[in-house]
Amino acid sequence: MRTNAIAAASCSPASTARNFWVEIEAQSPLELVRLAWHLGNRHTQVEIVGGKLRMCRDHVLENMVAGLGGKLTPIEAPFEPEAGAHGHAQGEHAHGDHHDHGE
């Protein structure tokens, strides 16, 4: 079982602020997938909750999501991000091959 404390440790510098999660809504399921793709492309920790996404507060990513049409709401709630395809912690990315993630 993942814990909020583990997620909070990797969500700095805002880890001590109230409302340090943001919930993301989209106008359609397709738009939500598009937002999730953009966040994943930036190796962002994301939790999928119902028809919404949650991520750590980050003004740069929040501006990107808003610019792509997402509705953001600061929240106080448990945060259990997806483990990722390779099971790595955020920031780890050594698997021997080189790719540019479309950047």
Keywords:
Alpha-Beta Plaits, 103 residues, 4 strands, alpha+beta, 27% helix, four-stranded antiparallel beta sheet
What does this protein look like?
The chain is of the alpha+beta class and 103 residues long. The chain has a domain at 20-75: UreE, C-terminal domain (Alpha-Beta Plaits). It is built from 3 helices and 4 strands. Strands 2-3-1-4 form a 4-stranded antiparallel beta sheet, with helices on one face. Strand 2 and strand 3 form a beta hairpin. Residues 1-9, 13-17 and 90-98 have low confidence and may be disordered.
Summarize the structure.
The chain is of the alpha+beta class. The chain has helices at residues 4-9, 29-41, 59-67, and strands spanning 21-25, 46-49, 52-56, 71-75. A hairpin with a 2-residue loop joins strand 2 and strand 3 (52-56).
Neighbour order of strands in the largest sheet:
2-3-1-4
Strand-residue fraction? 15-25%
Total E-strand runs:
4
Element-level helix/strand string: HEHEEHE
* Biggest sheet overview: 4 strands, antiparallel
Please name the fourth-level CATH homologous superfamily of the domain at 20-75: UreE, C-terminal domain
Can you name the CATH architecture of the domain at 20-75?
2-Layer Sandwich
Number of helices, where a helix is a run of at least 4 consecutive DSSP H or I residues: 3
Mean pLDDT: 77
- Catalogue the unreliable spans: 1-9, 13-17, 90-98
Q: Based on CA inertia axes, which overall geometry fits?
A: globular
